[in-house]
Amino acid sequence: MELTIEPAAPFDFDLTAHYRTSYRKYFGNHEYVDGEYRQIVASSDKVALACVKSVGTLDRPKLKLTLRGDHPELWELAAREVAWALGTDTSLSGFYALSREDPPLNTYVQQLYGLHPTRNTSLFETIVLAITGQQIAAGVAHAIRGLVVQEFGRPVVIDGESYNLFPTPEALAEAGVTGLRAVKLSTRKAEYIVELASRVASGDLDLEACRGLPSADADELLLGLRGIGKWTVQWLKITAMDYPDAFPSGDLALRRFISHLYMDGSPLDESAVEDFSRRWQDHRTLVTVYLFAAARMGLLNTRKG
User: Fold this and answer.
1) I need a labelling partner for 109 at 20 to 30 A (CA). Which of 13, 27, 42, 295 fits?
2) Helix 284-296 and helix 230-239: axis angle, to 10°?
3) Quick count: other Cβ atoms within 10 Å of Cβ 148?
C-alpha cells in the first residue's frame, strides 16, 4: 500500500529532509538515506517505519509514503506525522515576496528555494531536548541528548535497522534526578526534566493542547514551566509548533547572523535584534529557519578571516 502527500509548492524534498535530519547521528528516530526519508511512527505498543520518497518536482511536488512493519492501522498517523514533520502544508509565498525586497536575506532564500520548515512531532520531546542543551556548547548538548535517548529510550528493530524511540515521560520520571545525572545532565536540568515528565505522565499537564492556543496564551503556559524561558519558548514555537512569527532574539548565533548581514559585524544586543526583526513581521519563523539552514550548509559564514 502507498499513500500520496502533495506539499505546498515550491517544495524541495532533498533540502527539507536534510534539514530535518541534521543531527541524526546524535539522537532521533528519523533519518534520510539514499533519497528516502524515514521516520518511526509509534502508537501505544505498535511501531512502524514511515518511508517517504519524492515522485514529483520542485514546483509540482508529490511524495510517496510507504509503511514498513505489520501495523496497517498506523497509516493515518504516519501520513499526519510525516506531513507535520516535513512542513508540507506551509505556504512560502508571503515570505518569498518579503525576501525579494530584502537583498541580504534573498541571497540565501534563492539558494534554499523550496526549503520548508520542519517540526518535531512531540512537544514533550522538544522541551526535554531544549532543556538539555541550555547554556552548553552545541557538541556537548548533542552528545548528552544521545546518551538520554540511548539510556532511557526503547530500542526497536524494523527491517534489520535499529532505532531508539525517544524516552517516554514515564521512563524519564522513573529515572529520577539520579538517573539523569548519570548521563551527564546537571542537577538543575535533571530536576526540571523529572518534574516535567512526572506532570505529563500523571496527566496533570497536557502539553499537546498547547499547540492550538493563541500565541500569547501559549507563552503564558510554557513560561510557567520550570526551566523554560523566553528564548526556549520561541524555539519551541519554531521547532515543534505552528506559529509563523516566532523569533528567538536572545539566540547568540541569530544575533551574529543579523549583525554580519546588516551591520558589518557590529555587536547587537537582544533588544536591538528584536527591534530590527520587525521588518519581517509575520514571517520571522521562516527567516530564522532559513538563516540557520544557510549556516548549517556553510553558506552563511560569520567568522572573520
Assistant:
1) 27
2) 80
3) 25
pLDDT digits (tens, 9 = 90+) for 102-126: 999 999 999 999 999 999 999 999 9
- The single residue listed with the C-alpha cell 535530519 is 21
Establish if 60 belongs to a structural domain: yes
CA atoms within 13 A on the CB side of 5: 27
pTM above the 0.85 mark? yes
**Cβ–Cβ under 8 Å, residues 274 and 258:** no
- 121 is written with which cell numbers? 512531532
* Domain stops at, among 239, 259, 292: 239
Nearest to 207 by CA among 177, 171, 169: 169
pLDDT attached to residue 305: 41
Q: Determine phi and psi for 37, rounding to 5 degrees.
A: -90, 130
